[in-house]
Design brief:
mainly alpha; 3-stranded antiparallel beta sheet; two-stranded antiparallel sheet; 5 strands; 69% helix; elongated; SSPN protein; Sarcospan; transmembrane; membrane; transmembrane helix
């Protein structure tokens, strides 16, 4: 009889704890933390990533069409493609039913993939902006001449052994340099903005979801305290 009474008391105590947890506004806020202004979490970030990724990719291919001698690092369409892929994974996340604390394997996998792709997009965008900024600083010091439908530029015309930069398929050297400078400036702005968006997405996911996963504090706090109470 004593054992049955103690078990009933434990069950009633557990029910009271569950009622308090349900009525706790903090738990409601945690369950609703995946929404922002009434929208699911990755919608705003995915839309921004898609717009920026498409812009960087299109602009990179336009730059590649100006001259066939431009290097891949100077036409960073690859950074835009990575950001576009990350945004598509974010849209896939919207189609998955939300479960608190990543209770489903599919949700956890998609969110982890989105986090990793956003981090990769951050690194790619920063590298692209650095390459483009270096090329732009070089072009501001160039002295260019049009020779046989090619634009040949030098940093120091007085140095006969100085490096010569050749841009193929350029009938007018002045129009090529002006267009390329404009495209480089646009690439710097777009890639830096894409890097900030990817960084914000990674920060929000780490703070609200993956901080719980890596720290591992909130997984078994109730079971641990219950086991200690039973031992006592």
């Amino acid at each position: 009889e004593k054992s049955t009474d103690s078990s009933k008391a434990q069950e009633s105590a557990m029910k009271k704890k569950q009622k308090k947890a349900k009525g706790d506004p903090k738990t409601g806020q945690e369950e609703e933390s995946h929404t922002c202004c009434g929208c699911r979490f990755p919608l705003l970030f995915a839309l921004l990533q898609l717009a920026l990724g498409v812009s960087v990719t299109v602009l990179g291919f336009l730059m590649a069409g100006i001259s066939s001698s431009l290097l891949v690092r100077d036409t960073p369409y690859w950074a835009g493609i990575i950001v576009c892929v990350a945004s598509l994974v974010g849209f896939v996340m919207l189609c998955i039913s939300y479960q608190p604390d990543e209770k489903t394997c599919v949700q956890f996998t998609v969110k982890l993939l989105y986090f990793l792709l956003s981090a990769l997009g951050l690194v790619a965008s920063v590298l692209a902006a650095a390459f483009v900024a270096h090329h732009y600083l070089q072009m501001t010091k160039f002295t260019c001449d049009t020779i046989l439908e090619t634009c040949q530029c030098k940093l120091d015309t007085a140095d006969p052994l100085g490096r010569t930069f050749v841009y193929q398929d350029a009938a007018d050297c002045g129009s090529l340099t002006s267009m390329l400078n404009l495209y480089l400036l646009l690439q710097m702005g777009l890639n830096l903005t894409a890097a900030l968006v990817c960084l914000s997405a990674c920060f929000v996911m780490w703070k609200h979801r993956y901080q719980v996963f890596y720290v591992g504090v909130r997984f078994y706090p109730l079971t641990a305290t219950e086991g200690q109470q039973q031992k006592v």
